[in-house]
Amino acid sequence: MRIIRHPDLHAQKLPAAITMGHFDGVHGGHQVILQQLVAKARELKVFSAIILFEPQANEYFALEKKTDIPARLTRFREKINEMTQLGVDIVLCLRFDRTMAALSAEAFLQKIVFRYFKVEYWLVGDDFHFGADRTGDYHFLEKMAYTHSFTLQRMQPFLLNGERVSSTLIRAALASADLKLAERYLGRPYSLVGRVAQGHQRGRIIGFPTANIHLLRRISPVLGVFAVTIKGIGDNLLRGVANVGLRPTVEGTGTRVLLEVHIFDFNENIYGHYLEVEFIHKLRDEKKYGSFDALKEQILLDAKQARDFFKDV
Fold first, then answer.
1. Sequence ranges of the domains in the chain
2. What is the pTM of this model?
3. What CATH code would you report for 2-159?
4. Can you tell me the distance from the alpha carbon of 37 to that of 87, in angstroms, rounded to the nearest whole number?
5. What letter does residue 130 receive in the DSSP assignment?
6. Distance CA 12, CA 85 (A)
7. How far apart are CA 121 and CA 110, in angstroms?
8. Are 225 and 241 in contact (CB under 8 A)?
9. What is the pLDDT of residues 17-43, one digit of tens each?
10. Would you give the distance in Å from CA 194 to the centre of its chain?
């Protein structure tokens, strides 16, 4: 896959089938769109291309209005990994800032989309809008399609059990610890990805070593203690127990969300490895304990409960 962050430096008028959006989670509905896009691009013998924004527009506007920022399901790297597996050729990543927010729909097309791509086909979701005041919609693009000679197609909503699958719905499922429902919406278990960093090695002292992953997120959509599966170490799917949170017993009033993973029956040096941690079952919420010994007892109980859970699945 080719990732382009500075379109002004790469204006080549690439022939392409395109789509545009946040694609947070790359959930089941997104996957249907991207599969259709890739298939059409191959049929037309052009590039399949996605236009993304960083930060996401909803994050930018939340900061502007000083409202709560929605927990992001997938960071940019995770989106790219999913899109690569689906066969997407190009991701054009644009910085969403005040200038971008002020662009009219027509200006966005002329200054960015048509400058970089020779659009042959444009695929949009059922709730598609873009441009200042969200004036760019399907009917607007119908006029542009006629003027600029590209084919426009709108996808129908992706429904499961009569509900339209969305990133908002998945965030709600994760917040209520309904990991099975989130998995159905996503088409895979919910996971977090990151590089294993050096920690304080307190876990090793009590015989409970953990892989520490700094999530680099303002907000995590999952918090607490979970039975997890782990990818990224050889070809096997490993099992373990993980804590996502601020570690109140150790850090006091910490502000950085950390993912700590204890991998069962494993004791190798994996510093620097990228791991994908899949959340299978929630055991409990994170809690502050009165002493490190009390925390140790709870950690051992968490590990036993996670092992018992995996015996039954």
1. 2-159, 189-311
2. 0.89
3. 3.40.50.620
4. 10
5. B
6. 25
7. 16
8. yes
9. 999 999 999 999 999 999 999 999 999
10. 12
Could you tell me if 49 and 18 are in contact, meaning their C-beta atoms sit under 8 angstroms apart? yes
Cα 270 from Cα 232, distance rounded (Å) = 10
Q: Residue 161: phi, psi to the nearest 5?
A: 55, 35
CB atoms within 10 A of CB 282: 17
Residues 6+ apart with CB under 8 A from 257: 215, 217, 219, 220, 223, 244, 245, 246
How far apart are the C-alpha atoms of 196 and 27, rounded to whole Å? 26
Cα–Cα distances in angstroms (integers) from residue 94 to residues 18, 58, 163, in the given order: 15, 14, 31
Q: Are residues 123 and 40 in contact, defined by beta-carbon separation less than 8 angstroms?
A: yes
Give the architecture (CATH level 2) of 189-311: Beta Barrel (2.40)
Q: Give the distance between the most distant pair of CA atoms in the chain.
A: 71
Determine the Cα–Cα distance for residues 213 and 25; give it in Å rounded to an integer.
Answer: 19
- Amino acid type, 43: E
Residue range 73-105, pLDDT digits in tens = 999 999 999 999 999 999 999 999 999 999 999
CB count in 10 Å sphere of residue 60: 19
Q: Which residues pair with 276 in a beta bridge?
A: 193, 231
Nearest Cα neighbor of 99 from 60, 136, 69, 137 is 60
